[in-house]
Write a structure and sequence with these properties.
By secondary structure, this protein is an alpha/beta fold. The chain has one domain: TIM Barrel (Alpha-Beta Barrel). Helix content is about 50%, strand content about 10%. The protein contains 18 helices and 9 strands. The protein is globular, with a radius of gyration of 21 Å. The chain starts with a helix and ends with a helix. About 0% of the residues have low confidence.
Length: about 400
């Protein structure tokens, strides 16, 4: 009899916890600061108001299933694209077309007030985040233009940096560079972004660029899709002193789901996998397929094998908790990198799975208030602070 009572008690507790996390997730404003579906829209013609299961992590129906409220759409192209500004506008056009077709489901918003209105109407609030300063083509007028089109952050550098700021890739792989950090023009970009109320994103930035930004900015900054260097010493992750500096600045770190950024053993596993399938990988590249899509093709073909490479969800939670323990709960959020990464952590298969993060945080004992901050409140605070004169 006692055993039956114990089993029933455990079952009841599980049911209460399940209802609790689902209710918290449903009522929170969920913000994802980085999704690359627009890259796939332009590169391979995916249209995300259609069912893209098996083709992408993202589509409009699945966003709603996952409880997403606010999406910042990454606008990205490689640094070797001949006219990156035109490419950026093509990606923006693709979103505008989908918003126009789905006015009852999604709306582009320009500011914090419009965002809250959209959420209240149960629509996804959409903004752009331009990933890479090369896309403004060394022209402040183009910076103004992308802001007017709805870009609410600019990632100062990608791996291939603009002429005016050095990237993490530059600073860790090149022994000789014309300059390190921000140039005079780079400082003008930061100052203009502060004037516009456009968020400065230091994901991908080199250490010197990061510290130049911290010294110069008058507004809180973001890292739109980065994780913790002390847990995984990848050049794309943030060191403790950088995390502390962002917290002191009043900014926010949006943790990236990329397995290579959250699992210290992933790089070794991935290298072994690519070595094993090198001939097929090389063949895909020689056919003209871009590196990202060649890897994606391999991962899908050998899904049973690559599924074992995926880190557990708990590793992502470890990065969130590390930041909280270091600087507090007010400075961390979510920047998934869905559709910009080939593999995801276990359980986080696509955009329907955001509630599992809430569930994990409830199980860790975080309060509703703190979970609301992590899921989106912290990012919204920074967005609002950047709008202030």
């Amino acid at each position: 009899m006692k055993i039956k009572i114990l089993i029933f008690s455990i079952f009841l507790t599980q049911q209460i916890n399940a209802q609790s996390y689902q209710k918290i997730h449903r009522k929170a404003i969920l913000v994802d600061s980085h999704n690359d579906i627009l890259m796939k829209a332009v590169d391979i013609g995916l249209v995300f108001d259609k069912d893209l299961k098996g083709k992408a992590h993202t589509d409009l129906a699945r966003w709603k299933q996952g409880g997403l409220d606010v999406q910042l759409f990454s606008v990205y192209c490689d640094g070797d694209v001949k006219n990156p500004y035109a490419y950026a506008n093509r990606e923006m056009d693709s979103l505008d077309a989908i918003v126009a077709r789905n006015p009852d489901k999604m709306v582009k918003v320009a500011n914090y007030a419009e965002l809250l209105k959209a959420v209240k109407q149960h629509k996804i609030a959409a903004m752009f985040g331009v990933e890479g300063g090369h896309m403004i083509a060394d022209d402040l007028d183009k910076l103004d233009a992308i802001y007017k089109r709805g870009a609410r952050y600019l990632t100062l550098t990608h791996n291939i940096a603009p002429s005016w700021a050095t990237s993490a890739a530059d600073e860790t792989s090149q022994s000789k560079m014309p300059h390190k950090g921000l140039t005079d023009f780079g400082r003008k970009v930061v100052q203009r972004m502060n004037q516009l109320g456009m968020l400065i994103d230091v994901s991908h930035a080199g250490d010197q660029t990061f510290w130049d930004v911290i010294k110069l900015t008058t507004k809180p900054i973001i890292a739109s899709h980065s994780s913790v260097y002390s847990l995984v010493p990848h050049r794309r992750n943030l060191k403790d002193e950088q995390i502390k500096a962002i917290a002191k600045n009043g900014g926010v770190i949006q943790v990236n789901f990329n397995p290579g950024f959250i699992d210290n053993s992933f790089g070794t596993k991935e290298n072994a996998f690519l070595k094993k399938n090198a001939s097929e990988y090389d063949s895909l590249l020689k056919s003209g397929m871009a590196e990202f899509y060649a890897m994606d093709s391999l991962y899908k073909k050998f899904a049973a094998e690559t599924s074992t490479m995926r880190p557990p969800l708990s590793m992502l939670i470890n990065h969130i908790e590390y930041i909280i323990k270091l600087v507090g709960v007010d400075y961390v959020g979510l920047g998934s990198d869905f559709d910009g990464i080939n593999l995801t952590p276990q359980q986080l298969d696509d955009v329907t799975t955001y509630p599992l993060i809430t569930k994990a945080l409830v199980e860790k004992g975080y309060s509703k208030q703190d979970i609301n901050k992590i899921l989106g409140g912290n990012f919204l605070r920074v967005l609002k602070a950047n709008e202030a004169n």
